[in-house]
Specification:
Blueprint lengths: L3 H57 L9
Length: 69
């Protein structure tokens, strides 16, 4: 029996294991980046809402007519 198929299978298994580790690590990094981006978007959305509230208050605040004498 030829020994090379066993060597090839062992090399394939090592490569698969390394790929699985690398893909898992890459997946964790992508998840962390996605979570960070979502947190930043939520933060900036809150800042935009506050700014819109301030601008709306300034624009639509009821103004009183000057007193007539």
């Amino acid at each position: 029996m030829d020994q090379r198929p066993d060597d090839v299978e062992a090399a394939i298994e090592r490569t698969r294991a390394r790929l699985d580790r690398d893909l898992t690590r890459l997946g964790r990094r992508v998840d962390a980046i996605r979570h960070n981006a979502a947190a930043r978007a939520q933060w900036w959305g809150g800042i935009a809402a506050i700014a819109a509230g301030v601008v709306g208050t300034l624009l639509f605040w009821p103004r009183h007519a000057p007193a007539r004498t």
